[in-house]
Amino acid sequence: MSIEIDVLNGDASWPVAKPLFDAVWPPDVMEKLSWGQVQWAHADLRVLIERPEGGLACHVGIYFRDVTLDGRKMQAGGIGGVMTREDCRGQGYASLALNAAVRTMRDREAVQFALLFCESHNFAFYQARGWHRFTGEVYAEQPGGRIRFEAMAPFVLDFTRAPRQGVIDLCGLPW
To answer: Do the Cβ atoms of 168 and 68 come closer than 8 Å?
Structure first.
């Protein structure tokens, strides 16, 4: 069996990714989530994995952003919108997609660290892949202005150096 992994432009590939978003996070599920009302940034790139029988199995969004850490500007890569169809879970799709996303971010030499946000039931998944809990504060933009972002826990991955604490300002919408 062959698995096809594509890394595509975020906006151009949205029509392909949207049905998976709708299947994994339909409106009745979104309204119950702590982060369901958050306005999210659009992915710069998307890692998409097709099921052998057709249709998307998995999605990972990739984001590139100038952020500040304790007031110092630096470039971060972001991971967001990680999802796998329910009938495809436990088959390694998310690990493959996450690895492809991390490789894509590492290819940009200016990216100093990666950042993602996740719910507590996913902590072990990311920790097993080298991600570390960021224990500082994260700020992001929302329609009402700048907020401390606490809807989900932040995790970081080292490229050249990833902070474990401090103040990160996303300088835009969260991912």
So the answer is: yes
Q: Measured in Å, how far apart are the chain's first and last C-alpha atoms?
A: 32
Q: If phi over 0 gives left and psi between -120 and 50 gives alpha, with beta otherwise, what is residue 81?
A: left
Q: And the tokens for 174?
A: 């969260």
Whole-angstrom distance, CA of residue 49 vs CA of residue 57: 6
Q: Choose among 98, 17, 102: nearest CA to 55.
A: 17
Q: Which of 113, 125, 128, 117 is nearest to 151 (CA)?
A: 117
For the stretch 107-154, pLDDT in tens is 998 999 999 999 999 999 999 999 999 999 999 999 999 999 999 999
Q: pTM to 2 decimals? A: 0.95
Q: In the prediction, which pLDDT does 1 show? A: 55
The neighbour count for residue 27, using CB atoms within 10 Å, is 8
